[in-house]
Amino acid sequence: MTFEEFQMTLRGSAPPSHFSFYLASLWYDAKGNWQKAHEIIQDVESETAAWIHAYLHRKEGHIGNADYWYHRAHKNRPVQSLKDEWEDLVKHLL
Description:
The chain has one domain (3-11, 19-93). The radius of gyration is 12 Å and the shape is globular. With 94 residues, the protein is mostly helical. The protein has 6 helices and no strands.
């Protein structure tokens, strides 16, 4: 799947069933459902999940919590926009 094809799925009412929980979390975030995105990812133990978790807390404005999750993901908090980080995450997963 390409990034453009992923974006096309945002026209639907639910993420495609074949999406990983990582992509489903980012899909719900893009649809404006931060809570659902967070619910999906919060208990997953992986560096990728930690990165998504960090991004979500950065978006929420809880920078201290975001920094904790960036550390768990072995990443520094980016200076790029949230939109650009979301795109980087999706492309990384595709």
